[in-house]
Write a structure and sequence with these properties.
By secondary structure, the chain is of the alpha+beta class. The chain is built from ten helices and 17 strands. It is globular.
Length: 357
């Protein structure tokens, strides 16, 4: 199958309006639509948010039978659906099931001729489903049961697309998870590494589609070492799930202070990290002092430089958080920064294990 890109991410939350408002106020997403009983949605209320090429659907259950209710009860608030843009959702669904995916929702064709949308879902990792989406018109409506408001695609926004999703899986399941994405979804592994931080360690592999517009960094804890943050995520989330969503920005030195002004809280980085930065990376085109002031991390690969920073988790269980990433030629994932991220998350979890303010 030919997966083109991430079509949308659906977040399952306690209160869709409240969660959507936080994403609008803190990350600058625009309200693009709403759905609920009035528009024909059954058992839930949804808010559609957009920013450039990012589409988020924020959903809360109004019926205990809705999947969002089951998900939030077990995992807390988080990513329940990753929508995948394909040419033919019905064909992609059939192919995925034939290759071993468990069907979640059969193909459903909705909308008028020429602007039809087809949805079909299969299982992914844990309780996260993959929703194949094909659209008769690229600029058509998101879905008929979502009543859309006017949204200017060229409007302001700090973030352009979803760069990648980081996924935590239980120990011993990394290899089989990657194999499933290769065999069922046609992704390819592009990177792997082990990160050791003191007495703790984790293993990770990256899988991508051909265009790189769908990238999953899949991580498992190394149980031969002391338990750490990946173990804590798996325990708090009760199984595999999305640890963070990375938003791509073209100017992280503007995005970070603006987001902070809006109320986003970022993980901090020890001063010692910046003392060694110049000798480790050489010239990167950005003053180290500017990075130090904002706690922005920097790394380099053969293609260029990347700058990145991670938010605190504001969820009750201390699970889902976000990343801002600015790629200045680099195409990898900040290997030298993963240790810094690991240590920063560890500090937050140790000092504030529930993720609350």
């Amino acid at each position: 199958m030919d997966i083109q890109s991430i079509d949308h991410i659906e977040l399952f939350v306690d209160d869709a309006e409240e969660a959507a408002l936080e994403l609008r106020e803190q990350f600058g997403f625009a309200l693009a639509g709403r759905g609920g009983t009035r528009t024909g949605l059954r058992g839930c209320e949804s808010v559609l948010l957009r920013q450039h090429d990012i589409t988020l659907l924020v959903t809360s259950a109004t019926s205990p039978d809705h999947r969002a209710a089951e998900y939030v009860e077990r995992h807390g608030q988080g990513v329940g659906v990753i929508g995948l843009r394909v040419d033919d959702a019905q064909a992609a669904f059939a192919e995925a099931v034939e290759r071993g995916a468990l069907p979640v929702a059969p193909p459903e064709r909705v909308g008028p001729e020429g602007a039809q949308v087809v949805f079909a879902s299969v299982s992914g990792f844990g309780d996260v489903e993959h929703r194949f989406v094909s659209r008769g018109r690229p600029d058509g409506p998101f879905a008929p049961l979502i009543e859309e408001t006017g949204w200017d695609r060229s409007g302001e926004g700090l973030f352009t697309q979803i760069d990648h999703l980081a996924v935590c899986v239980p120990a011993g399941t990394l290899k089989e998870t990657v194999h499933a994405y290769e065999e069922i979804f046609g992704l390819r592994q592009t990177f792997e590494e082990q990160i050791v931080v003191g007495s703790q360690a984790m293993d990770s592999k990256v899988v991508q589609n051909g265009s790189g517009r769908l990238t999953l960094t899949i991580i498992e804890p190394d149980v031969t070492r002391s338990p750490g943050q990946i173990d804590r995520f798996i325990e708090a989330h009760d199984g595999a799930g999305v640890q963070h969503i990375a938003f791509l920005t073209e100017d992280i030195l503007t995005a970070v202070p603006k987001s902070a002004e809006r109320g986003v809280r970022f993980l901090t980085t020890p001063q010692s990290y910046y003392e060694a930065l110049g000798s480790r990376l050489g010239p990167i085109g950005v003053p180290v002092e500017a990075l130090r002031e904002l706690s922005v991390l920097a790394d380099r690969d053969p293609a260029g430089v990347m700058l990145q920073i991670f938010t605190e988790s504001r969820h009750t269980r201390g699970t889902l958080f976000y990343e801002l990433i600015d790629r200045r030629g680099a195409s990898t994932f900040g290997s030298n920064n993963i240790k810094a991220l690991y240590e920063a998350v560890d500090r937050q979890q140790t000092s504030n294990p529930t993720g609350q303010a």
